[in-house]
Amino acid sequence: MSMLKLPIGYDNFGELVKRKIHFVDKTLFIKELIDDESTKILLITRPRRFGKTLNLSMLQYFFAETVYGEKTAELFAGLKIAEAGAEYMSHQGKYPVIFVSFKDIKNHDFEHAYAGLVELIRKIYTEHRVLLESNKLSVQEQGFYNAILDKTADEETIKNSLQNLCEYLYRYYGAKPWLLIDEYDTPIQSAYVNGYYEEMISIMRSMFGAALKTNPYLERAVLTGILRVAKESLFSGLNNLEVFTILREEYGQYFGFTEQEVKDLLIQSQLESKAAEVREWYNGYNIGGVVTVYNPWSIAHFINRKGTIMPYWVNTSDNKLIRDLIIKSSDRFKTKLEDLLAGKPVESTINEDMVFGDLSYKSEIAIWSLLLLSGYLKVLKKEMVDEELKVVLDIPNREVRSLYRNIIKGWLTDEQDDELYNEILSTLLAGDINKFIEHLALFMKQTASYHDLSNDPEAFFHGLLIGLTASLYKNKNYQITSNRESGYGRYDYLIFSHDLTKPTIIFELKRVEKPKPKTSEKQLDELLAKTAMEALEQIATKDYLTEAKRLGATKIIQIGLAFCGKKFMARYS
To answer: On the chain, which terminus has fewer CB atoms closer than 10 Å, C or N?
Structure first.
C-alpha cells in the first residue's frame, strides 16, 4: 500500500512546501481573489477544520516577500497559481502582509481574554519590528509602538493597532498591506458562552471598524471564521464587506476537498474500493447548492490511518454551545431533531447573520442557523419566501450523525458514567421496567441539573428520551417516533421494535406543577403517583396503541410518567 500521508495539524503553508509534505493544491484561490477586484474585504465562513487557516497562510506566503525572515519566491513553483501565468505571479512578494489569528482568544473571563488580545497584538508588532528601527515613525508613533511591545498600551491604542500598523507598513514599503484575519469570531463566541459578550464585542467592533472601515492604507482584507456575525453587532457601517457563507457558490471549492480531489487521493493511496463508504461518512456539504465538498480533516485522517472509517472531525471541539442549545431547546425543536436522526429532512427559516444575543433555547431559527453554519447540517433546498430564507435541512453524513448521539449521551451521563446510561437503556429495551425506573431515579439524582429542568421540564424529559434512544436511530430493529397522531390524540413517545420477541414501548408524560411551600413529600408522592396513573390510563382511553398495532406490535409495554422537577413516578402495564 502507498505511504501517501496528508498533513494533519499543519497550518503553515511554507512549512508544508519546504518539508515536501503532500497537500491538495488550492492556490487557484489566489487567482480568484486577484480577479475579484470589486471586493475589497471578504469574509469567508466555513465549519472548523475546513482549511481556513492554511488558506490564509498560503495568502500570506504568496503576497509577502518574506515570512518569518524567509524568502517566499520559490514556494509556488510548479503549483497551479504559477501555471495560471505571469499576470498573477507578478503579485507574488509585492505587498506587506499582516496576519492575525484570534484562535487562542477563548478565555473564561474578559480580563484574561483582553490580556490574550494584548499579547497577540504584541506578537504581530514584533514581527514587523523593522518599522521601529526605520525613520518612518514619528516620536509619538514610536511611543505607541513601544507601548504595545511592552504591553503597557492603553485600550484605545489596542483598538487602533491594526489600522496604525497598516499605515506604518504603507509608509515603509510604499505599498498598501493585505490584512488576513483568521477565526475572527472565536473571541466573540467564547465571550458569549462565558458571559462577557458585551465587553468583547465592544473591543472587536472598534478594532475591526478602524482597520476595515476607515482605513485608507489597506490594500485588501480576507477574514475567515465559522459564523457570520451580524453587521449591526460587529461590522456596523462597513459597506465594503462581502460575505461568502456555505450558501454561496463562490470560493466553494477551496475549503474542503472536492469529489475529484478525493477520488485522486483514494487512487494514490490505493483506497478507491472504499469510495462509497467515504462518501457516506464524510461527504454531504453542498456549497451554494453547486459545489460538493468532503470534510478535509476526516479525509486526511482516513487516508493516514490506511482506510480506517471512524468519526474524526466530531472529536475536534468541545461543542459546548451546540450541546447547551440542543439540550435546552423547545419540545418542538426536539421533535424536528428526532426527524433528522431518523433520516427525515426538516424545513426551517435560516438567518445567516448571527446575532449572539438572539441565541437561546427559545429561538429555533437561531439554533438551526448555528447548526448549519457550523457544519452540523446541510442544505438540500433553499428559496426566498417573503424576504425570508427557507431551507430544507438534513444531517450531512454518518460522522456528524454520531456527534448528535454523543452530545446527548454525554449530557445524560455527565460525560463520565457510561455504565449508568447503558443500564438505563438496556433495562428499558429488555422490558425490565422496575430496573429501568430504579436506574432512571439514580440518574435524576446524580446528573440532572436544576437548570436543565427549570426552563421547560417537558422538553427536558422529551430530550431525556431522545438521549436514551439516540443510538437506536437508523437501527433496523427499531423505529422511534414522538408526538404523532394515533387513535384519538397524540402520544408522547414510541419505541417500536421490529423484532416482535422484544417489547414495543409507549410513553405518556405529564408534568405536575411545583407544589406549594406547605406540601409534604408524602403529598407530592401521592400526587405524582395519581398523575402517572392518569397518564397510563390516557394511553388506553385515547387508543394511542393504534399505530403500534398497525405496525404489527403484539408485545407492548405502556408507561405513564409524571414528573415535578427531579422527582418522578411511573406506572406501567
So the answer is: N
Per-residue pLDDT, averaged over 322-338, amounts to 78
Amino acid at the residue 276: A
C-alpha cell at 97: 502582509
Count of helices and strands (H, E) across the chain? 24, 20
Q: For residue 347, name the pLDDT band (cuts at 50, 70, 90).
A: very high
**Other C-beta atoms within 10 Å of 420: how many?**
18
Helices 110-127/197-208 angle, 10° precision:
20
| DSSP per-residue string spanning 415-432 | TT-HHHHHHHHHHHHHT-
DSSP 335-366: HHHHHHHTT--EEEEE-SSB-GGG-STT-HHH
**The pairing of beta strand 257-258 with beta strand 291-294:** antiparallel
| H helix intervals, 195-294 | 197-208, 259-268, 275-282
Rounded Cα distance, 106 and 129, in Å: 27
Distance CA 190, CA 187 (A): 5
Burial class (CB in 10 A: 0-12, 13-18, 19+), 336: buried
pTM (predicted TM-score): 0.84
Mind listing the domains of the chain with CATH numbers? 24-65+75-244 (3.40.50), 262-309 (no CATH), 320-399 (1.10.10), 414-572 (no CATH)
* HSE toward the beta carbon, residue 12, CA cutoff 13 A: 9
pLDDT per residue as tens digits for the range 149-193: 999 999 999 999 999 999 999 999 999 999 999 999 999 989 988
DSSP of 113-177: HHHHHHHHHHHHHHHTGGGTTSS-S-HHHHHHHHHHHHT---HHHHHTHHHHHHHHHHHHHSSPP
Cell 433546498 belongs to: 381
User: What is the per-residue DSSP string for 386-411?
Assistant: TTEEEEEEE---HHHHHHHHHHHHHH
The C-alpha cell 406490535 sits at 553
* Residue among 38, 57, 54 at smallest CA distance from 46: 54
Could you tell me which residues are beta bridge partners of residue 490?
A: 485
Residue type at position 85? G
At residue 440, φ and ψ (nearest 5 deg) are -65, -40
Quickly count: other Cβ atoms within 10 Å of residue 251's Cβ: 20
